[in-house]
């Protein structure tokens, strides 16, 4: 008599019947058992060329994995070890299970093919253009994850704002809201040129911890800055919860990623915000072929400049528009 080495476990109550040469299980099942009864019978037949084992297997008792699913793979290997076709004995997988197994295999292959993302790095290519922190270098991420406002655009924007406020050397004191702040270069420029407080809105935690905050610390402006880790849309919907019921901001800068926002929806949100007042200035950077309205709530467009593929629109109170027209007429006389 021979006993096959099997991965299928037999409990203590199971016994071997020497006369009939088969393993038998007790008739009653325990509650702890997750198996179905099975019987393996075999007999030996001797021929001239050797011994031929004839194995008749009835699989009503199949080992199960801890999750409760049938461990067919282990049983297939066991049957193949003795020259049997597993498909003749094991139940066939349903189409749903087959698709799930194939999907898992594809996901495993994709995970192996995916290369780990390199760590994000920074460099110092930006600088403060004017004011108390002039020529201070600022960090910015390498690559195209964050696209800061170009220095020529930033310089033109602050020149227009200073002229509209009646002072070419500095900004009128006030509070600035920097939406899509990224590196914080616009808000930092505002503090350097005379703003008393800036609120930065940025959704990327890495940009805040490794770029924005270090820039505020290096320029010494961290104490007059408030950082909001939030999406701009969420911030505008819940502005009172973020900044309280204070007065309107004196300045708002909007420098979004061109292809990821709907300017019509964004400008509508800004114009209806309780933090936009009658004397607020709004600086908007936008791409070519973007339709910008001539008004934003109670504000009017006082400037619209083009810098290559980048456009700059500035909205402000009506008195600032009249003042700019008067200055232009005086310049012509």
Describe the fold and architecture:
With 333 residues, this protein is of the alpha/beta class. It contains nine helices and 14 strands. The strands form four sheets. It has an eight-stranded mixed β-sheet with strand order 9-8-7-10-11-14-13-12. Strands 1-2 form a two-stranded antiparallel sheet. A hairpin with a 4-residue loop joins strand 1 (15-17) and strand 2 (22-24). Mean pLDDT is 77; it is low at 1-70 and 326-333.
Task: Report the average pLDDT across residues.
Answer: 77
Strand order of the largest sheet: 9-8-7-10-11-14-13-12
Task: Say how many strands there are.
Answer: 14
Give the class from helix and strand content and strand pairing: alpha/beta
- Give the helix tally: 9
Order of helices and strands: EEEEHHEEHEHEHEHHEHEEEEH
Strand content: 25-35%
Helix content: 25-40%
Q: Provide the low-confidence segments as ranges.
A: 1-70, 326-333
Question: How would the global form be characterised?
Answer: elongated
